[in-house]
Amino acid sequence: MCAGPFRPSKPPPPPADEIGREKRVRERAAAQREKAELKQKTLEQRVATLTGKRKRRSLLTGRKGGQGFAVAPELMSKQTLGT
Q1: Based on the structure, what is the number of domains in the chain?
Q2: In a domain, 5, yes or no
Q3: Domain limits for position 31
């Protein structure tokens, strides 16, 4: 007495909740605005920390004092200046 293959019926789709949908859209828009403001603040902080650090420095009179140069001692003189 087999009744055949049994397939359960699909549940009806949930009712379209327009109020909940509008609320989610508003929350998503608010989150995007907040995220954009946070990005802008972090960008401003990064720019502020970098300001003043990008200056031209003399390689010889800087705080390292020309330590990065490897010049042979015989080439160093007042006339040639290491060239």
Answers
A1: 1
A2: no
A3: 18-51
Report DSSP state, residue 74.
G
Sign of CA dihedral 59, 61, 62, 68: positive
Q: Please indicate, yes or no, if residue 39 is contained in any of the structural domains.
A: yes
3-state secondary structure of 62: coil
Of 49, 29, 28, whose CA–CA distance to 41 is shortest? 49
Position 76, amino acid: M
The pTM score is: 0.43
Q: Residue 47: inside a domain, yes or no? A: yes
What is the C-alpha to C-alpha distance for residues 79 and 72, in angstroms, rounded to an integer? 15
Query: pLDDT (tens digit, 9 = 90+) per residue, 42-63?
Result: 999 888 887 766 666 666 666 6
What is the pLDDT confidence band of residue 36, given thresholds at 50, 70 and 90? very high
Give the contacts of 59 (CB within 8 A, at least 6 positions apart): 66, 68, 69
